[in-house]
Amino acid sequence: MSETQQDEPAAPPPSRKAQIAAAVQTALIGALAGAFVTWISAPWLGLFARQPLHVQLWVSLAVGGALGVLALIPVLRDLIQRHPDKVRTALCVLAGAAVATGVWTVIRTAAADDQCPAPAELRLVTASENVAELTARTRAYVREHQTEDGCPVVRMTVGVAPPPIHLRDAFDNGWEWREDRGEQPYARLYDLQPDAWVASSSAEADELRAGQLRSLSARKREDTVGRDQLVLAMSGKRSDELDTYMDNPDDYPFGEVWDTLTNTMGMTIARPFPETSVAALIGTHDVFHDRGLPESRYLEAERKLVDDGLGADTVTSLLCEFDRLADRTDGGDPKIALLVPGHSVDDYNAGRVEGCEGTGDSASLVAVRHHDLSTLDYQFVKVSWPDQRSPQREKLVEHFGAWLRDHPLFPNAPGPRDSELGLRELRQLRKLVLDELRPKLGLRLLVDTSGSADRPVRVQAAEAVRANSRLLQPRDRVEVFGLHARKKNGPAEVTSIAAGSTKEQLGDVATLIENTAFDDWDAPASAGLSLLGAGDETVAAPVVLLTDGRLFDNEGRGDAAQVIARALEDASTVSGLYVVVFGQDECAVTALPGTGKPYRCVTVGEGADQALTRAIITVRGWR
């Protein structure tokens, strides 16, 4: 470099006005470039906006990654170093274009939302175990059926159908739950009235249609929108153990598979209650017939299923209970097989069980299939309500039903196979299980009437009693007693709230519970059992204790479980104790050592009425 060049003075910095002019020029160029880019990319942006969220995400990541790779090319880096001013200007132009495009997109989106008409709303109900799959189908349908402007044509919601024992009344009474509240008639909706119902079996829908229900559409063969098969679900370790006894269980008679599981391997078979789950009711047919049991053994088999059923009223609650048990079991490997639909195993392993996050983390389930297990053929049943008919809505329901036939539920289930149970067979099975195999129940409710139980127990207990009138049989009787102490640490008292009442009188029973004074002190549960067991009853009956749980703290010296166990064992007229805890997430006494009488303690969890339903079905066989 020459001396002259070395001594040449540095160029003066641009003036303030020149900097502002350059910035304005760059901004104008950027705005014009943005408008141009927006104009040429509008069709592509519209197409991009209509894609599912995961597609948008991956496309954005792919474009960003591609730009990053280009920036690393040596030629581009060299160009940036040699012409920094031009690169800076180009970046400003691109930034201006991006800002203009973003502003245009926001304005267009806001305008589109304002212009979109309110979509029609369709409501569907199905059994709890089918909600996840049906919801996924409705979301796919909504995505596929939009206007050219990207507006949704329909909004769809999926809810849980009432239990089978309530379905006929629900469809026949405008989806109203009618209760007996003394002299005051009372009705409330189960939930939003459905436009369609996906039944778990064609026989289930046929049984309701046979009662001349005008709300249900006539049956069509093409209304089948999915099939699945019942399976025996167990942990992988138990499945491997079964393989050591029989290479392929499907090659053996079902009765032999059952005996291997229960007798040789020492496992129990759990199934929800058939009163509250059609899948369980149909599964009961398999337990009786496919094992080749004589009718003389039906009662024994049904009682065994109730005792081993984990107190579950639906397939979903059964999976939740299994998950909780797996969390408490070493290695997450309970010796239990679940009789459930095959797709429920996939839901469990994928963590899609409603209300139970993280299912499958402790132990995933394996579906053991057998050709003798029943097939569930899911039916799409249109529902219409008086004074709510709409040609547009009916057209949408028809269209979704046709679409669902082309996109069936549970496509990964085994090949098509006709269901074994028709209307006649299901009726006979329901009558057998619910009317003939259920023994007469003399139920005693012992209600904690201390002051601490007032808020959590009083109203919930009364509502639960009202809600379970359909679960009781004409021969059943219910007595209600209060348990309290007049002063702190004083002697326990048991007072009569309602004498032996029939199912038709449960409204009055519930009102008596609501009108009872909850203003005394806690009394020990063991003392309540001792007082109930001191009567002159000729037949021992189960006791269901409704409490906020604090009475477990009043058992005096020693372990509460041992004290209660001793009182239960000594109470000659108490055949078992079932505790329902309100307002807490756990039971203080989970097991009773030293007594052969049954005991169970549960929390209210998802609802008091469901908890009492489980209690009634469970204790029915505790004699």
Could you describe the 3D structure shown?
This protein is α/β, with parallel strands linked by helices and 623 residues long. It has 4 domains: 28-93, no CATH class; 120-224 and 380-404, D-Maltodextrin-Binding Protein, domain 2; 231-376; 438-622, von Willebrand factor, type A domain (Rossmann fold, 3-Layer(aba) Sandwich). 45% of the residues lie in helices and 17% in strands. It contains 21 helices and 16 strands. The strands form 3 sheets. Strands 1, 2, 5, 6, 7, 8, 9 and 10 form an 8-stranded mixed beta sheet that branches. Strands 13-12-11-14-15-16 form a 6-stranded mixed beta sheet, sandwiched between helices. Helix 17 (454-467) runs antiparallel to helix 18 and helix 19 (525-532) packs parallel to helix 20 (560-570). The longest helix has 34 residues, at 16-49. The N and C termini lie far apart (110 Å). Residues 1-6 have low confidence and may be disordered.
